[in-house]
């Protein structure tokens, strides 16, 4: 007989400062914002989830297989992606159970990571799990969660309400007809606000395979002739307007760098044509993308979509894994990034344009105090984005706040962004952020750098007024 | 009726560690250095202020308009630089009052920033303000400060004494006749020591507009023929000697990078000539500047001026603002910087030269542990400069000490440098530094990494022996 | 009469967290791992020390002269390397005493550095010194230590046992016959495990002076014709197998960068030939080295040696010092480094190869959260190395754990590596690491991010299972 499993019980004071006096204030601050509605202005939840409102299929498909935060560390620990059900379409019960078992058996590799923190919160607070996962209780936990998933209270819409989500932004292809968003908006039984986000990366990178086909699709979606450069621009403008009409408030961009060097229209048109013909050089393709990022800023000035940048990721680092299991499988690896010079052409033109807003995210911490905070501390258009991806974790979030606040204060930041495709982790992530911000504010009060009334006001602003302003919610 | 304003009362323990036992020691350490004289070996206060000793015109002109730390975050918050009186010459009472009101109305955007910390100290400790600025009390505070400014006790010399400043270094153009410094030195009624700093940037950058005119002016000032390269060198040497004769102890340099690649004299002479003729290429201009930085080191070996480097800033990032409001208006943005390879030619030649001293400042934190501390930990000439600009703030200062000390200890650092043009912020800044250093030392004692007697000795050295040595005061 | 010297008494709680509740747990965690055997899988102790087991000559030769951590900060403080006995062969008693005196006189420059911490531990715990070194007690301390060194209990083997070292890895030239390792393995009176490490840098860098001679030596050692590229490869493979047969578990590489771009065999062979002929260009030499680093990975897949990378150091920064005093004299200075793109060719090929292990060390902290942790968090072959060199100090170690753990957890790290040539500092360094890890774990428990049983298990794994796995001990 195996030993009894350890208990799982997330502590009410978790992540708060350890000094008793500071913790007491942090606790009061946290209590004042804990239950405020969740604004999730950037993420990757599929909106059809809420349209269909079907029961989630099984614990692994819900919590393990699609979450690259989980699968990558299991992969590093010797579990194959195949065992985790990655890239295999719908899982059989046997496959799902096996994938779930891998997670439970390797629970200890997540010690000290935010995945552990999020999962613990989800298991305990959403599913009522009271034992720490291990190899002995894996099947029992699977059964318990599977049972719950069959209940009506665990359907997507019920969870959406229970999570207290006020706004949820999805990330969408410019050609998407946004039928899911329309269905939700038209459904009187659904009271949440689910808005699309315009994500045109693939249409701006002529060097990527499939660009010409994408541009053709774009032409169809917008009813424009995208074989010409002006038509291509009009099509992008048209699709952006379509997104705005369906509630979008932002456009997201994730390229290797954020250079924004202008081309004259004739050169842009020439590259557009050669790229469609498949004869553009790599340098021309890069120049075109950099020019188009600037064009996106121009369009943002016109249609009001907040521009958000998520640069500096080398996607699909391990080609054999890409070929076997597809993209978003845990090996997008950060590289150094530069903002000051790269964004200068854009900011020279639009940095003080009325209504223009630009949110800068980074996975390269070294730019926070050096570039992002100084830019957000001068340009009325620039906001420092919340820590992203490898940095969306307690210690990194603390470092980021410390790195940004002294130059840009609190009001020039974006508020928390969960950026997740794991729907059930949304509340745990926002809750983590609230705890950390309240802890930091309590420390500022304890060091007599801020008065208590200001800490309470700031704690609330950080989950309410600040993200509303940054993302125009 | 508006609600009563919040009180403003800087806490005696502000910035000290929150752990009660550690704070108790930090408090004792701080008490031992709190009242020591201020050595300000690098800054931007105008020496004529002390020569004229006239009353400061008004609160905005004193505290708001010229301080780019304040105007930039207000600008980012939607206040125009015009509203703040930037770039408009002397302000009318109406303009000054309006600018002041903008600051008070936006007080909350400074939460968590050092500007808030400095201003709070200044308002409370210098002007006796007891209310936190807000839109309701803005005019009342303006009147109160304006009243004080009219009093003799608030004239520059009285404040200089009250602040306990022993040495104040200014930053000066090589062609400056240093009349203000001479006047102060000759005035028996003024007992402070105000020394100039040689800042030759514009004379070393042939790519900058106005270089030829500057070189001509330099020739006049030095009575040398600067149309020849040897004459140009002699003129620089001569002006440096002039500065030394007027009390200067350091020469400051702020270029985009710190490369110091030598040119042979014939090449240097050729570029000097073509640059004067306006036909030098951008690459030649850069090569010339890098060569001249090495020449500056040679001259420092000869005349003893400490060489200080402040690289890595992209000046006037937003050209429209530069054109409308002038330089130093809040949009100088840092870029990545490199020291190890860039300084190698200089250090190969002069790194162990007797008497040569080189202080390295950075706005790129990533070089602190990687490059600056290792260089300062080997070369007897190299000192790690205090955190500068966007980093002259409590958390950044703590990070910098932690990043530098483990490799270079305390004795290879520069001591605190306020680098400010805001005269009234000088004591608040030095006080902040003393509190932070005492906090760190108390933490080292609490972790049993340092004995208490050593902490007391180090606290004193950091405000006395260490800056005296680094800057040859 | 000089004042009495201060006492020297390392505190039992040193480096543990200062919050009393957190410290209490940290103390219990530390007590559970304090006495576990030392695994030292990478370092620079000379194995002949243990073969000869002769008394150490004198305190300076043991503790000062060969330790570039000590000599560099003394050098920066104005002591010449000559005074410290560097590069002068065996020291006379007079020279040794003078060098020792310099250390004691400058004890205060080490405040806040790990050197101070290590030396304090060594002096107190190994030699029973009870006074803090100063100029008054320098000779007395010298005599006391010298006396001890003459005792049998202070011979290398006795210390090896007393230190509780289970495994000690040395760093060795590929042509070394490993006679010392064989002698130790064959000696029934010596029960420790001393294993060699394959360090082929000089054989892979055709641009370095002496490469051709080294390649010829390699041919002799391996009995292969290294004038041909295939023979050169075979010779390297053969010497690696020889090292494996003598207990080696890893191969170490330290080049300016870690690019691993493949050449086709014909190109590699051509550069090999031209480099031997002395006609290869600098670019060809670099290309060859980058190709060979990839070849080293291939060989690791075949012979199982763990590959460890220590890049990003500009060696012998100050050429005059190199010429006068030799290498490893304190002026190897870090530069920026890049892993994500540089290692991609290697990881595309071997990143998921069974048994392949790659440990990444850095002196550029900015890559920890950005590149190393993400790579170690996906690739089963990649481990994040312990903080190295300028970063092997309490605050830097804490920063590194915080930067790596949230992405890669604890299990994807290397465990502590002392990397020292200072034999007597081995226990102090490992003890420091254990204290810091226990402190961090206690903090995670205090913030309710980890349960207490997990903290105890992790504390033990970090000094036992984790390094055993990473280095295949």
TrEMBL record, chains A, B, C:
Q: In which pathway does it act?
A: Carbohydrate metabolism; pentose and glucuronate interconversion
Pfam (any one): UxaC
One function term, GO molecular function aspect: glucuronate isomerase activity
Q: Which gene encodes it?
A: uxaC
Q: Which residues form the signal peptide?
A: none
- Reaction(s) catalysed (UniProt annotation): D-glucuronate = D-fructuronate
The answer to whether UniProt assigns keyword 4Fe-4S to this entry is no
Show the InterPro entries listed in the entry: Metal_Hydrolase, Uronate_isomerase
The EC code for this enzyme is: 5.3.1.12
Is Isomerase one of the keywords UniProt gives this record?
A: yes
> What does the sequence similarity comment in the record state about its family?
Belongs to the metallo-dependent hydrolases superfamily. Uronate isomerase family.
Q: Which UniProt keywords apply?
A: Isomerase
Q: What is this protein called?
A: Uronate isomerase
